[in-house]
Amino acid sequence: VQLQASGGGLVLAGGSLRLSCAASGHTFSTYARGWFRQAPGKEREFVAAISWGGGRILYADSVKGRSTISRDIAKNTVYLQMNSLKPEDTAVYYCAADKNGLGTPRPSDHLYDYDYWGQGTQVTVSS
User: Fold this and answer.
1) How many Å apart are CA 92 and CA 77, to the nearest integer?
2) Percent of the chain that is helix, strand, coil (3-state, to 5)
3) Cβ count within 10 A of residue 26
C-alpha cells in the first residue's frame, strides 16, 4: 500500500499549484482521503478531506475558498487545487487515506483517523 504525493514546488504569492496523490497496492475506492500539511516547527494540520464517494468535503478555514479537493476513483488519485497561495501556505503537504471511509462521521479532519500516509511534497510560497 503506497501513497505518492506530487505537484509541489516554488510559487509566488497569488499563484496556484495542483497537488496529486496516487494510491497503489490496494483499492482505495471506499477510503476517505485527506490532505494535511506541516510547516517547520509546527504540528501537522488538516487541510482538506473528501469522502469515499466524493459527496462530502471538508476544508480547513485557512484554505476554504482558495482550495478544491477532488478525486478520480478509477485512477485511485486525489487532487488538491490551491489558488491565491500565500506565504503562510508554505509547508510539506501530506496525503492520507482513511480505511474507515464508510464510517461516520467521514471524512475526518483528525490526522489519527488516517491509516496510510504519503511521503509529502514541499510547497513553498514566496512573497
Assistant:
1) 19
2) 5, 50, 45
3) 14
Torsion of CA 33, 3, 113, 85, to 10 degrees: -60
pLDDT digits (tens, 9 = 90+) for 46-75: 999 999 888 999 999 999 999 999 999 889
| Angstrom distance (rounded) from CA 104 to CA 47 | 19
Q: In 3D, which of 113, 36, 16, 28 has the Cα closest to residue 71?
A: 28
The neighbour count for residue 95, using CB atoms within 10 Å, is 29
What SS3 string covers 30-75? CCEEEEEEECCCCCCEEEEEECCCCCCEEECCCCCCCEEEEEEHHH
Picking from 127, 93, 123, the residue whose alpha carbon sits closest to that of residue 13 is 127
Helix, strand, or coil here: 105?
coil
